[in-house]
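Researcher: Please generate the 3D structure of the following complex. Treat every line as part of one assembly.
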Amino acid sequence: MIKRNRQHGSSKRSSRAVLVIEMAHERRLIYWAFGISLICHLVFFGAFLVAQKHKPRKFPRQSVINVSLVATPSQAAHSSPVSKKTAPASKAKISKKKETRKKTVKIAPKPEKKTPVVSTSGKPKVSLKKKTFKASKVKKSALKDIEKKVEKTSSERRTSALDRLKTKVEAQEVEKRSEPKATQAQPSSNRAGDGSGQGGRVGELIDIYRIEIAYQIQKNWAFPEQLAGGRRDLQTMLVFKIMPNGEIRDLFFTDRSGNTHFDESAFRAIMKANPVDPHPAAIIRPYVQMGLRFTPEGVK
Amino acid sequence: MRKLNITKILTVVCLVGFMAFLPAAGAEEYEYIDISNPFLRKIPTAIPRFKNMSENKKGEVLSVKLADSLSKTLAFTGYFKMLDRGAFLADPRNPDITAARINFRNWTVIGSELLLTGGVAADDDYIELELRMFDTFQEKMIIGKRYKGRESNLRQIIQRFCGEVMFHLTGTRGVFNSRVAFVNAEGGVKEIFISEFDGYNPRQFTTDNDLSLFPAWSSDAKWLAYTSYARGKPDLYIMNIKEKNGAVVTRKGILITPAWVPGKFELAATLSFSGDQEIYLLTGRGKIIKRLTTSRGIDVEPTWSPDGKKMAFVSKRSGTPQIYIKNVVSDRVRRLTFEGRYNTQPNWSPRGHSIVFSTMQLGRIDIYTIGVDGKDLRRLTEDQGDNEAPSWSPDGSLIVFSSNREGISKIYVMTAFGTDQRRLISLPGAQTSPKWSPNITNQ
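Model: Done. Output below.
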């Protein structure tokens, strides 16, 4: 018994020694691990801080977009529906709703009606029977008319809007350049001004292009309010690329609302708008990436 | 072993840390533009004429008639914008009705998000119908059904398919199995009529040749309670609709505005035998279970929450008629409406979250909805004569009401948002007090 005990004790001791060595080894390992994790953490937060630094640059640019859009009155009708509170629907129905809604609603129906009025004006009234009888003929001529008009108006609108923007951006640049000169060292500010000026101009054009596309997509968005199931917190986010010819590619969800009808309606809106207007000539990029956030805020 | 474990764990932790961080950094890249206003609040839908698969005259006639019927029935719900067939690019003479043959591009290009096709084969006795619904952008069939019936069943078949469509979209089968009861006034008498949900086939229910008012459906749609003057004073009649028998509750004073408790053979009604108009709970046989209101001033027009635990009603306890909600479990009462001086005719949505009622303001009566929590007051009718007696459809998406916008009072229907207001019933005489039934399951 005693012997066995002793043996036991010695084996304990030796195992303790092994343990000590092991622990020392482990400690070293733990230090290593700590070191690695510390570095990793530093990298994370460093990256995070860098990313944060970039952020504020983006936001003012966004607000700049909004301002320039409002100041693009090529067509009141064209710019107005982008504003958040427009609520399209038939006029008769809207007029019945609350006074508070009235204000916001009135602007919207105009653009919807504009094109058909233009395309059919000047034509004598044809009875419904005739219309359906010679459907193909009527369709062809109507399509031609519309095509002509669309080509004319959209290209005119775009070029004039772009021209105006260019002059405006240039004016802003001059202002920008003149401001920092007073406070900062001249050479560095000059260089920075030139660089960001060029980039900003194209960036701004892209932002305006994006908003125009967003409007085209919004016009194609159909969603009955009842399908929201009384929920107003629905939100679905999609990202896609627009090729120079206006083709939409690589469309995917970055966030879904959980309501499939809502998500699908957003998806369809983009698919229906495809192809959208091609890139303006000033944008020389392989594609323009764009994100849209759909919310049923306006859905009552 | 331990060494390995620790190092392994550490590396895994590090990796997970990295991975958790990476997508977040990725998400930062996109800037989003907000779109918060659907341009169209309906689903653009195309229903081309059906394919005549029997190639006879009957099939030819039915292929147009049934397509129109499907289009009309679905449009009634207010969810769909039916596209004009004149704009369709597909050949109307020989429509493709299966996914394999349909060129979906023809439909997406005209903006149609849903496509419903039908094939009809008719012989002398029976008619076979194939109905399908497609998502044009995903290019897939959502619903496909085949029906067989006689010509007299066609309306039912179309409605059943519409029920499937609505079930896909909303999770409920819509209103297609429901009816509307209303009071028709003609030649000095008021009788209760019942029509189908879309105003089709109105039939006279009461034949007392007197005044019958305030129809109320039981939640299984088998019983109708109403007030009738058939015995010289306003008594409460509780009638089985099919067998036309039941109970007559007669007491001193008036017995008006019945409302069935959901899921039970019990109803609340206003009785005035105590000298004051108070709401009582009665059995389906007309026995009083208990008194539900005890305040001074009239208490009328009860309406139940879908779970049967709460009851909204009109009370004059604060001087003007206002809507109150009583929790019949806890016996607590709270006032719901504070705006306006004359709020009456509440009707609790079968979805539970809101109550529709009518308000008199400056001599005009209009319909509003309010959340059960008293928030979110919305006006649904405006500048269109007087609009009264609103009642929810069983799926809570539509509201039926009476209005004198075209002169004498008629029955109209609108969506829960006040859009798509249209007349429901075209009968001579004046129609009032419509009540929408629950969906009828086995009749």
